[in-house]
Design goal:
Length: 146
């Protein structure tokens, strides 16, 4: 028995469906008025919560390439305690965390009017897909090295 199975290689048709869903969700997020940096921040924060080194490295690099600052990335794990993030970004990060952790009772700290209903929906789908990617990478033991 092996330690890990690369589930994307084992079932490539499902992996391709995940890729297609990811593309549709990203397009919907942009159409809802969410900027590319915010989308990367959400992906990074979800990956931090899930402990996915592969996705953290990939989306941190993507965020830096899109102009994100190292200061904001450094404080992202404690975003609520910093003054680096706008109300919209804070609401988006809170919603992404709730969709990732599914805490009970439901915490709706993000529902402060900073996000439209279209943005709320797009961010929830973004979190659903990113959580899926994290689980694919973690369960497949994607290599992450220098």
């Amino acid at each position: 028995m092996t330690d890990a199975v690369n589930i994307g290689k084992e079932h490539p048709e499902i992996y391709k469906a995940q890729l297609a869903l990811d593309k549709t969700v990203s397009e919907s997020a942009m159409a809802a008025g969410l900027d590319a940096l915010l989308i990367e921040l959400v992906k990074i924060r979800i990956s931090q919560l899930n402990g996915c080194a592969f996705c953290l490295r990939m989306h941190t690099r993507d965020a830096l390439a899109k102009g994100e600052s190292t200061d904001r990335l450094a404080v992202l794990p404690a975003w609520w305690e910093s003054q680096y993030f706008s109300d919209t970004e804070k609401a988006a990060l809170a919603l992404a965390e709730q969709a990732t952790e599914l805490g009970v009772p439901e915490q709706r700290t993000w529902a402060d009017g900073s996000l439209t209903t279209e943005q709320q929906s797009a961010l929830t789908w973004l979190a659903v897909v990113m959580n899926g990617w994290n689980r694919i990478a973690i369960m497949s033991h994607y290599p992450v090295g220098p």
